[in-house]
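**Archive record**
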Amino acid sequence: MVAVCRRMNASGINQGTAGNVSVRNPKGFLVTPTSLPYDMMRPNDLVQMYFDGSYEGERRPSSEWRFHRDILASRQDIDCLLHCHSVYATTLAVHHKTIPSFHYMTGVAGGTTIRCARYATFGTQALSDAAIEALQDRLACLLGQHGQISLGKTPAAALALAIEVETLSRLYVQALTLGEPPVLDDEEMARVIQQMKNMSYGQAPDLDGVNDVAKRKQ
């Protein structure tokens, strides 16, 4: 977790002590502490939290612990949550813009769009509720006038998705300078998402069933 936090800032998708990371564990979940620079953070600074909102240790949990708790509690398909204030994703979020399927890679978040949650004050239950709504059937969302959230089975997977969301956000912001871009229809996006699922299961993409896939030479 500490290494991913440092990589989050080094990659440019987060700044200062903003952002936070959590990982499910047998007791509940670990979450990054509040107001501690990542380059000073050590594993024993991570805060053990429980799903009743209690925590152990000397350090206080991130101010955003509520949405970490609630998302992990409601989403048994993921074990890690990463929140950051990446520049282009936040640029879209301040305008409450959902990212449409202007590019097929929008499908990495699990659907035809990457939604933007309604605005709510940071650290509140209202923000947690808004995030859960925007994340329904998705692995990522923007937070209105705030930032982004990405989910994964591991910290590394959540970080990779957050970087992809930021890349898509930058592409969309740049595309908008030429006007609203065309979007791929739901039928094509369904094909794209199935291709991505096949590849995540270690299968070669072959939706047409023609068996024209790359094969290791014998």
Remarks:
- The chain has a mean pLDDT of 94.
